Amino acid sequence: MTPFSPRFAIAHLFAAPLAAYVHLILLWSLGYTVVAAQRASVLEADWHRLIELNRFGTEILIYGFIVGVIGAIQYHIRSQRDAIHSSELQRQLASAQLQALQMQMEPHFLFNTLNAITTLVELGRQHEAAQMLTHLNNILRTTLARTTPQKVPLSQELEIVEDYLAIERVRFADRLQLDIRIEQGALSGLVPSFLLQPIVENAIRHGIAHCEDQGVIETVIRRDGASLHMRIRDTGPGAPALKQDGNGIGLKNTRERLHHFYQDRFEMTAAPMEAGGFEVAISIPYEACA
């Protein structure tokens, strides 16, 4: 029965007088002794005193007070249980959403890499294809070892980026130049897993791939007090990236995952630069790994 429902109220309207009557009988019976039994007039007077209107009303008030206290306690317990259940559901939902984002992103990268390997095999470049498969194996082994979405040390995240860039350098050869500057103090900071690779991939697909000559990807990561700053730039034409407006699968998922981990405590900008190329800048709270 739902608390404070009409059925609840009606049930207690009938139960209150009955409980009051039973309680008065019990009180009266406590005064029934052998001596008192010989004094019927005393027993009768006591009975009339117990069942007078004021006393009967007091009994009903006591009953209502007890029911109210019990109801308040039950309501508090139920509220706490519902709050815990709601919190657990929200945690599970957030985890499921994050897992879905990561599952969407990793096949996207996997498809592109396998497509590149297939192209190399068709061109008869089996040695380069084998190299790409080795680096891909390293990435997949690391990714599959992470059973749940999590944060990892920046140093581990950079290992995935290095394997990915090794794959892309097989494809682009001398057309892809790297300028990577990582502050030593930033390497122990925690970042969401698979954070940087999709940004680098976006820079190559929409930047370096459109360069007629050499293209450069510049990666700068540093710690500034309680913040970790990451900046990735490419020297591509910038126009294709501008059309994406920072909303490609990789960048969109990156933004949503950052929001999951940091709510409003992060900054992310993705925009073309005036001198050409595209830049993604991210600032997150610095968290040292245990």
Task: Provide structural commentary.
The chain is elongated. The chain contains 9 helices and 7 strands; from the N terminus they run H-H-H-H-H-E-H-E-E-H-E-E-H-H-E-E. It is of the alpha+beta class and 290 residues long. The strands form 2 sheets. It has a 5-stranded mixed β-sheet. It has helices spanning 6-30, 34-37, 40-50, 53-122, 126-145, 154-172, 197-206, 239-244, 249-262, and strands at 151-153, 176-182, 190-192, 215-224, 227-234, 267-272, 278-285. A hairpin with a 5-residue loop joins strand 6 and strand 7 (278-285). It folds into 2 domains: 6-84, no CATH class; 96-285, Histidine kinase-like ATPase, C-terminal domain (Heat Shock Protein 90), CATH 3.30.565.10. Helix 1 (6-30) runs antiparallel to helix 3. Helices cover 62% and strands 16% of the residues.
Features:
290 residues, alpha+beta, Heat Shock Protein 90, five-stranded mixed sheet, two-stranded antiparallel sheet
